[in-house]
Amino acid sequence: MNMALSPVGEEKFADTPFRDDVLEGLRREQKCLPCKYLYDETGSRLFEQICELDDYYVTRTEAGIFGQYLVEMARYIGPGAAIIEPGAGNCEKVRPLLAQLQEPAAYIPIDISPEILLAAKAEIEQQLPGLSVEAAIGDFTRGDCWPTTAAFPCARRVIFFPGSTIGNFDPQQARALLCSFRSRLEPGDGLLIGTDLVKDSVILERAYHDSAHVTERFNKNLLVRINRELDANFDLALFAHRSFYHTLRQRVEMHLVSLRAQAVNIAGQRIAFREGETIHTENSHKYSLAGFSDLLRDAGFSPLTHWSDAKQHYAIHYAQAD
User: Which of 127, 188, 238, 285 is deepest in the core (most CB within 10 A)?
Assistant: First the structure.
C-alpha cells in the first residue's frame, strides 16, 4: 500500500463518482484510472485530433468500411429504425448512416461531454430536419442516463457502437456491457458495432504512441483534469506516456509512468509513487472475428454478418437480439 491519508482539506470535496474512482484506483497495487475520464471536453477534442493522424489507422479504416458498405448496413437495419449511440461524442460517424437510412424514427446519442454532444445535436437537426434527436447526457455504462425509447415509435431499435470502444473493456466487462445492451433491446432489434482486429504489434504500438505526441497529451490531460477538479498537484513533467501491446492478453495498454519517487496531494489525500510505478489508464483489446462472434452469442445476440477491410485490420459487425 503506497498511500498515506491526510484529513487536511478533505472535507472540501464531495463524494462524487470522479473523486471516489480516482482515489480508489490510486489505492490499488497496480494504480489505475477508468478510461472514461480521459474524455472530458479537452480529452474529447484531443481524441478527435488522434483520429486524424496517419499513425492512427483505426478511424480511416473504419470510415473506409462504412463508405464501402453503408448501403448494405442500412438494408440490414431497415426502415423506421431508432438509432441509439452510447458514447456518441461529436456524432460524426453516425451522420452518413442516418442520411442513408429510410425514414429513421429517431436518433438518441448518449455522451458524458455535454458541450460537444449538444453542439452535434443542433448540427444534425439542421442537416436532417424532421429527424427526432434526443440527446442524453451521462455515462452510458450507468443505467440512469439511458432515455426510454417508448416515446419513439419505431420498427426496430439499433444500438450503434463504432470506433472499437468495446476494446476499452476487458473480456468480462465487455460481455457485461453487451448483456446490458441486450437488456435494452427487444428480440429482433439490432447492434452495429466496430472491433479492432488482432494484427502486427508494430502497427498497434505506432497507433498508440504517435510521432506527433498527441496521444501523450491526451493521456496526460487526465492528470490536468484531476489537478483542476480535485485540487491535486500532479507535475506533468514528472510522468511519461507509455503504451505497448500485450501479446498474451491481446490488448494495447496505456500507462503514465512516474519518473521518480514522489508524492501527490489529491482531494486532501496524499498518494505516494515509486520511481517507475505506473498508472494504468486505458486498454484497447483486439479481437479475432470468431472470438467476437462467440462473445456476441454469449451476450444474447445472433451475429448476422460483418464487414472488413482488405487487410483485415478492422471489422464492423451486425448482430440481432435473440
Answer: 285
Cell numbers 448476422 correspond to what residue?
304
What phi and psi values does residue 210 have, to the nearest 5 degrees? -70, 155
**Do 82 and 180 fall within a single domain?**
yes
Q: CA end-to-end span of the chain, whole Å?
A: 46
Model confidence pLDDT, tens digit, residues 286-319: 999 999 999 999 999 999 999 999 999 999 999 9
> Closest Cα partner for 236 from 219, 211, 212?
219
User: What does pTM read for this prediction?
Assistant: 0.86
> Is residue 221 within 8 Å of 43, Cβ to Cβ?
yes
Q: Which CATH number goes with the domain that contains 191? A: 3.40.50.150
Residues 75 and 157 in one domain: yes
Domain co-membership, 250 together with 195:
no
Q: How confident is the model at residue 3 (pLDDT cuts 50, 70, 90)?
A: very low
- What is the per-residue pLDDT for 13? 63
Residues 171 and 95 in one domain: yes
Work out the percent of the chain whose per-residue pLDDT is above 90: 83
Residue-wise pLDDT tens digits, 21-50: 999 999 999 999 999 999 888 998 999 899
What's residue 152's pLDDT?
74
Q: Which domain holds residue 303?
A: 57-199+288-321
